[in-house]
Structures are given as structure tokens and as C-alpha cells.
Amino acid sequence: MTKEQHKKADNTKNSENGSILDFSPLPDSIIDALESREKHRCFKKEGKQSTPDCNKSSIPGAVTQRSCVYGGARVVLMPITDAVHLVHGPIGCAAYTWDIRGSLSSSSKLYKTGFSTNLQEKDIVFGGETKLMDVLLEINRIYHPPAIFVYATCVVGIIGDDLKKVCELAQKKTSTRIIPVQSEGFRSFNKSLGHQLAGDALLDYVIGSSHETTLNHPFTLNIVGEFNVAGDLWGIKPLLEKMGIHVLSTLTGDSRVEEIARSHQAHLNIVQCQKSSNYIARQMEKKYDIPYLKVNFFGIDDTASSLRDIARFFNDHGMLKKTEQLIKEEINKVEDAIKPYHDALKGKKVAVYVGGNKAWSLIRAFEELEMEVIMTGTQNGLPEDYQKIRDTVKEGTLIVDDSPVMELYHLLKKYKPDLVISGAKEKYMALKMGIPFCEFNHDRITSFSGFRGYINFAKNLDQAVSSPVWNYTEKKLKNGRINQFNEVKNAKI
Ligand code: SF4
User: Fold this and answer.
1) How far away, in angstroms, is 84 Cα from ligand 1 center?
2) Each residue's pLDDT tens digit, 452-488
3) What is the dotted CATH code of the domain comprising 220-328?
4) Disulfide check for 450: which of 75, 207, 235, 278 has CB 3.0–4.6 Å away?
């Protein structure tokens, strides 16, 4: 038997046993064209390892959707609202990431202004340090910001500009924090290194740099790894305040530099995005002896258990009582509000392709609506991310790593989800295939965090699935999907 015949025989046998194994083999065109991608996809299956190969360089020609190290650093730091974010490099790096996160601000809007040294051919030949210094002095003269983050891009790494030295000199001249972020895009195939470099920039230059004493409050914490996308923070912070907790700072959503500078005085760090921000929490524990808790404010149960964990940490009788009361009241409101959406969504099949922690932290949120996650995956998952995914998803779920766009197309076509949850890069592919889509990445415009966010979440899913637009599509396949991809369906990728 050939390898392909063996595979088909295995699947037939599995199908007869009635487990996942109802899933048919992956499309031949993907397997034929990119055999090296096979180990990056797997099904969760009892007794098997059930995690895909990951954290590897993407295959040339596979058109990965990944970002670069600089992009990874930028998304962590950009939500600091009153800082200047200066991109030292050609204009494309700045344009590509300008406003990359839909992070909202309750005060300063300075972070929304794009700054670049716009390096040109002459700068590449003779070096960009003089230009960088001129730009830093000019920015400081016009804006007087509390901090300027200076991001190194690929070309800066290649020509060897001494970013650290220029920032040091500029800091002396301006007396403001000028912070080098050594985020040259090529430093790793995994943008997670960028998250870590952003964390280092905060740890080395901002956290602990203010010795002004904060108010004498017995219960203070920092929310780490919450970026206030679409106002998510504003669904979490009021809950903590009702419990009697003072939020000292958020790293980094809706934050100000001086708040982060004082964040080392908190009693506790809670970590929402464990993909990007575990590193900062671990380092703050080492350096400032601040313990941390991993939390998840997506979904009813996870929000409730996160609040309980925080109350248990402070172990204050009054807080424990207030927390239980708060959870009870909020859950009553949510359950009433989501009822109509729940009825419409129950039983729908979902494909999730999102950033690291969301690939597992969203699973419970779908289960609470009795939706079935049939596929989940991420672009830059690490082995520990996939272990968490494996531990969370049901038997038979397809798990994928760094799927190129055409591979995703073939997977969606084969497994026919009723809904895709992903980001802007996958949005139009799903819609053109006639599959309802819900944005869950940076471009989201609705808050999904906390109890109130969960009502928005259910409403958004229902709007996507029940949209009348699906009644007005002309070309329908037998299964109700539109096939806009006939011209590419046999493409080799
Ligand atoms: S830093 Fe490098 S990889 Fe990233 S956008 Fe700029 S040129 Fe591209």
C-alpha cells in the first residue's frame, strides 16, 4: 500500500469506530503539495500526543500569516496612551503597524499618532543615528512626553545603529525616558520574542522608576496582559473595584507611563493574556516579590472563577462575601440577556484561529452557549500553548499550527464550520466562502470581557450567524455555502 492508501484505510477504520475519527482525511491537495505541513495539524485523540509540531520557522512559499518580532513588541507597548512610539526604520514598518491594536484610551491619544525616522537610502549608507537623535529632540520639543519608546527594525539591525547609545544620550539631553526596544524583525520567526523584548523595555526602564508612594490601600493589583481592545479593560476594572480592590496599573491597556512606573508597589499581579505577559509577571515576582495569578475574563464561568481566585488571594472576609454577591447578581443578568442568542447559537460548529491564549481561553465561552468547537489553532503557539489547548478541547477537535491561508481555506471547506472566529487576515476569506465570521483580534470594535462583555459576545456571534445577508447570496453549494474560490481550488500551495 502507498502512504496515501494507508492513511485512507486508517481513516475508514477510525470512522467505523465512531470517534473523531469521523473526520475525513485532510485534503489531498494540501498533503500532496506540502507534506512538511502535515505534522503541524493533528486531532485530539485519547492516548496520543495530540499536539501539533510548533514553534518552527514557517515554510518558504507557504504564505504564513505571522507577524515579526518588532510587531510582537509593538502590540504590547502601543496601548500605553501618553507615550510616543517611534519606529526607527523605513516608513513601511511604521505604516504596517500603525494603530495595530484597537486599544482604547480614556485620556491621552498621543499613542495614536504614528512616528517614524523614515530611513532612506542615504541613511542606510551613512547610518541613521544622527537622524534618530534629531527626531528624538524634535519630538521632545513638540510633545514633552513622559516616555519615548524607540523600536529597532530589521534595517537598523543590519546597518548596526547603536540604538541604546543614542537613547542614552537623548535621555541626558531631554530628561525624559527614552527607551530602546531591540526588536529587529528578523531576530526570531516567532513574534513572542517581541513580547518578551517589550517586557524587558518596561522592566528595565519604566517599572520601578517612580518612587512616589501610592495611596495606602490594603488591596492593590496590576492587570498584566490586558490591552483594552475595544474597551475590554472597562468590563473588568469595575468588577474589581466593586470587590474593594484598587487597580494600580494596567500593562498596558489604557495605561499612562507614571502608573506603570509605580506598578512595583502592587500586592498582586493578575495575568490576562498569558501568551504575551507571563514573562513580565514572572520577572516582577523575582525582582519585586509580587505574586501573580493567571486569570481569564472571557466567558461566565472563567470570569467568576477568576474573581473568586483574586478574593481568595486577599483572603478578606468582607471581600469574599462581596465577590459572591457580585457574581450572583451579574450571572443572573447575563443569563437573562443571552437567552435569545443562546437559542440561536446552540449546536453551531465553530472554527477558532486566534492568538495564543485565546485559542484555549475561549473554548469554555463557546461551551456555555452549547456551541461545538471543531477546530482551533494559532499562528505562533509554543508547546505549552498547545498542551493547554489539548487539555481544554474535546476529543476529535482539529488543532492546527501556523496554517497558511490556502490551508485554512481547504480546512474550512472540508470541515464546514457554521462560524469562524479569527482576525482581519482571515475575515474576507471566510466571508467569501459564505461562512459567518466574528472578529476576535486587534480590530474588534466590541468589548467581550467580563460578564457584560459576554452578552456582547453572544450578540455578535448571533449577528454573524443569523445575518439576513446569507439569504441573499446567489451561488450556494449543496451545504449552503457559497463557493467563490472555484478558480483557486486546485491551486498547489
Ligand atoms: S521590522 Fe523587518 S520584518 Fe518587521 S515590518 Fe519591518 S522590515 Fe518587515
Assistant:
1) 19
2) 999 999 999 999 999 888 877 654 544 444 443 443 3
3) 3.40.50.1980
4) 235
